[in-house]
Amino acid sequence: MVRIHAPRLAACCALILVPLMSCDDRPSAPVADVPARHVVVISLDTTRADQFGLYGNSEVATPRLDRLSEESIVFEDFMTVAPTTLASHVSLLTGQYPHTHGTPRNGFMVHDQNVMLAEVLREHGFTTAGFAGSFALDSRFNFAQGFDHYDETFERFAGQQGRLQNERTAESVTGAVVDWLDTSGVPERLFLFVHYFDAHGPYEAPPPYDTMYDPRGREGLPAWRPQGFVRVDGSSEIVQRTAKQYAGEISYMDEHVGRLLDELRQRGVLDEALLVVASDHGENFWEHPAAFDHGWTTYQTTMRSVGIVRLPDGKHGGTRVPGVAATIDVLPTVSAFLGIAAPDNIDGEAIDLDPPAATPLERVRFGQATKPWNKDEVDPRWSNMAKTRCIREGRYKLIQVPYAGTEELYDVHADPLEQNDLLPEGTAEVQALAGRMRERLEVWAASADPLPSHFEPSQREETIERLRALGYLLDAEPEP
């Protein structure tokens, strides 16, 4: 396989349009006769699956994605493998766990040896275009490997506490895609990656979404700020109102994802595309420690994700797929559907889409947290080795916290918010199940063989401040 690498760019704060590769550099491989003319991947950052009507929520309005689900294949038990933006997106686009691709968390470099979906499709004649909604996916971290065009025009506006939020709104992201299509036209084969960041804190949806679920909007609410590894009273008025602000962001994002889908449909892209909509991770509210934050744990609140696949012409629309599937399965699934070879050394597995097949009950998937950062150097094999990790096997999830020496076991079908740890029951059946899952989880953890990575050193203070502005870095992280 010919490897094409995007250059590492250490550009200014508000990068405009980054034409990473020219048409003259395009590989000469012929355009394959594939079952989908285009591939579109839409990423919803920090987005809980349980906020959508298509996943059973009757209170939050998500009409556009609910409608999309009627013409799509919906994965009912879809999960991320890392609850933080950069690591989870690299897994999405490489088909690898972080302890294989080597990017442990935000601010670190994506190693050149990773083969990302944009590179795979570009080698098969696709024009590749990416649109990032947040600095966490800035090209300076080498995330933009394989993109002909990478748009990271972040808005800089005063957010909570006067900090600059290095992101852009869903309206701006959709607008950037539309402007590019208007200027460039629809290529013969298109891979389009679009990243929406709105559901990430601070929750500040524009009108009328700011008052959609609470007429007071943000009036009287404290400035949003992740508090670290703490738990809050879920019945308190402030906590409930904060969750309603998050819901407003979800509904706002849904509108502009729908606008993007309309534009793609009008241009003839949608019905000739394999479309994937996935969230990179969720957001913990009050259910567990790390209130209105993510990255610390592997509970369902941050690990369960949106997983929707629309085939060309909406074929098999309305199909619901049970069983565990994960973000690492996206790249091999796209490759298999197109009939092209997936890269070597991937951790995910292809899922049959035509016709849709339920994922095997015996399929096992793993996940690992990225915080606390003061545990990075505990084990030289992998910087996240001591952090919380989990194994999913059917309806059960075993969670280990190596640095705390604790374990928990949940039936996530009966107990989706993981409030009833089964291990204290101590029955022989529970202990046997936990023992089998524990062994598999520890074998997986010991298999870590990451590509080298490092915190991006150029413009270090700017990078740290911008990640802090997004809520990824606290001034002082409390010990959990």
In a nutshell, what does this entry contain?
By secondary structure, the protein is α/β, with parallel strands linked by helices. 24% of the residues lie in helices and 17% in strands. The protein has a domain of 334 residues: Alkaline Phosphatase, subunit A.
What class do helices, strands and sheet pairing give? Answer: alpha/beta
Main beta sheet: strand number and arrangement?
10 strands, mixed
Instruction: For the record, give the distance between the C-alpha atoms at the N and C termini, rounded to a whole number.
Output: 45 Å
Overall spatial form: globular
Q: For this structure, what is the CATH class of the domain at 17-23 and 34-360?
A: Alpha Beta
Query: In CATH terms, what is the fold-level topology of the domain at 17-23 and 34-360?
Result: Alkaline Phosphatase, subunit A
Number of helices: 10
Kindly report the name of the CATH homologous superfamily of the domain at 17-23 and 34-360. Alkaline Phosphatase, subunit A
- What would CATH call the architecture of the domain at 17-23 and 34-360? 3-Layer(aba) Sandwich
Query: Topology as H/E string?
Result: EEHEHHHEEEEHEHEHEEEHEEEEHH
Poorly predicted regions? 1-16, 27-31, 158-164, 475-480
Beta-strand portion reads 15-25%
> Quaternary state, please?
single chain
